[in-house]
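for the writeup, i need someone to sanity check this before i put it in the appendix. the sequnce is what the collaborator sent (i think, or maybe the updated version? ugh). structure was predicted straight from it, no edits. if anything looks off just tell me and ill rerun, i have time this weekend
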Amino acid sequence: MARRSKQSLWTRSLQRTASALTRSTIKAGSRALTKSLRAPTAKKARGLTSQGDWITGVAMASMGARRYHLFKPAGVQLNERLPLLVMLHGCGQDAQSFALSTRMNRLAARERFLVLYPEQDRRANPQGCWNWYGTRTKVAYGEAAILMAAVQQVSLLYPVDPHRIAIAGMSAGASMAALMVTRYPDQFRAVAMHSGVPPGAAESSVSALAAMRGRGAIQALSTSTNWPALLVIHGDQDVIVAASNGQAAARLWAEAAGPHVEKSRQVSRGQRHPMTVTDFKVRGGRTVATLCAIDGLAHAWSGGQARQAYSDAQGPDASRMIWSFAARQFEITKA
């Protein structure tokens, strides 16, 4: 018994030492990496840093590494802990173009939250898509692990409140965001899918094409898991990812939560595209999913920067909707 107790103490001591060394290594490596990339990154980041810092880093996991960028609002105090929003770009985009398109940094500077923009490696996908569909080969799970490593690294190095983390994405990024939540449901308080495919709808590049057309074999979510609340934003004129995917994702979440009611309302503001907002609520009034079906919106970020690809300035402001939705979930969690 005494020998076993000594082994247990030694094991715990070794684990603590390894953890400390890992943190020290990550911090040192991140400082060196940031210093080496600061000069070339500064010029590219014009328009992204007027109200904060645009920080470059690399996250590593067993399946590889990915570059990321982090927006940190100006004037963050040492004792502050800020919410973190993870933003996953779509195909044909990178972290910078996605940040410019969504204008999420401007919102983050005003509302005071951090924004993490992981970036897909073109060697992993020539179009810059996240490989959300590669579940048969486990490539999707490997990328999810790298993205989770990025979240953990940023949470370690910067003033992140671990109880206020949300994830959102556009197109392939939306599909990967949903997959991330199915892999790590306890790590996120909210997930937002803009023009994406529900998790489990594809397992290969071939089945991904069918899923994008709305013909995916969607698997039910576990009813025993407390899934983060879901916001879905999808345009009815999307010919890349069928709008039925948005409806399927919202219902998937609602059915996993149990008996629920659906209540819809019409929203129209000025010259922007009108939309139908449907809330899926369970007993007690808790919203488990919200679907925003936008009239006239194609495969583009609603309310985005007009000069960017996959961006529609005429739509309702998706960035505001996503942050407002996430902030509500943070408040519910705090209560």
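The chain has one domain: 50-334. The CA atoms of residues 85 and 115 lie 5 Å apart.
thx in advance!!
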